[in-house]
Amino acid sequence: MTLDLSLPAPELTAAICDINSVSGNERDLADAVESALAGFGHLSVSRSGDTVVARTELGLSERVVIAGHLDTVPVAGNLPTRREGAVLWGRGTVDMKGGVAVMLRLAASVGTPRRDVTYVFYDHEEVEADRNGLGRISRESPDLLAGDFAVLMEPTAAAVEGGCNGTMKATVTLRGTASHSARWWMGSNAIHAAGDVLDRLRRYEPQVIEVDGLTYREGLNAVDIAGGIAGNVIPDHCVVSVNYRFAPSRSEADAEAHVRDVFAGFEVAVADSAPGARPGLTHPAVASFVAAVGGTPRAKYGWTDVARFSALGLPAVNYGPGDPSLAHHDDERVDVGEIEQCEARLRAWLAGEQ
Ligand SMILES: [Zn+2]
Questions:
Q1: Cα(33)–Cα(105) distance, integer angstroms
Q2: How many whole angstroms from 311 Cα to the centroid of ligand 1?
Q3: What's the alpha-carbon Rg for the chain, to the nearest Å?
Q4: Which residues surround ligand 1, an ion (CB under 5 A)?
Q5: 123 is catalytic
Q6: Which of 220, 228, 273, 325 has the maximum number of C-beta atoms within 10 A of its C-beta?
Q7: How do residues 69-84 score in pLDDT, each as one tens digit?
Q8: Annotated catalytic residue: which of 26, 34, 95, 125?
Q9: Are residues 276 and 192 in contact, defined by beta-carbon separation less than 8 angstroms?
């Protein structure tokens, strides 16, 4: 399969969507991306698994990384794509092959950018985090991702969403003494003891924290509660699982300390966590990006792969075509004007053209 990068971005988006690349099946699309970019003298192209990295090597003082994933969630009878006026329907049109098409068009046509650019097309974003291609590159070849600033072209309806909140899952375990419920006074009920945990959650006032000029809204919520083994047994064990979404100004260690503080006196264990990402809007490269693409940046609440860049020391934002609320839906569709707008604005930022 070959991709014609001279196609207008909406047509290129359709062509990319029509190459099935459900997670685990990215090879055909990765091959097509690699061969489409290999012929450009201004790009140094490398491949790791089904991740393709294309870099300009102009020796400029700043480097930006523009990234997008090649995979999609499973197809739901919504391929091949179809076009109705300005709307392109089909799997991947929002998440996130419009962004991939923009990246390919820019990689092919902006031969002398104002900052060096690294384009990263990666695999396995829509599945378990340990298979994520961007994570793999960051562990195996972090130099490939080196830069001053990163743009992740996930769908944001063409608005700048800076950084992301971190996320932590923790458990609060209550212990009691089992007994027959007919002789309940001989036991101690662990589920009743969870009431104190729930009271603390109900009283909790989540903070709103400004980071680099954006406002991040935190949250601490119970997401699961488990306890009890039978209808006639006083439970000796109850576990309340909580999810803490924390502002990117907090480290994971800070977040853990906060959770332990909220549940002081209880048995707390951290199950897993992922750090947030600062938006870095005060960095010159980021400020010029925001000025070029326009609009008022807002904070990203959900965790995204921008945090992988943040862990490498790059501030990062989300910016891409498509309404994120349509991602993964059977009726996934994009207004092609957003794809064209993202391409034009990124081109203006990279190349100084309109
Ligand atoms: Zn996505």
A1: 11
A2: 19
A3: 23
A4: 95-96, 154
A5: no
A6: 220
A7: 999 999 999 999 999 9
A8: 125
A9: no
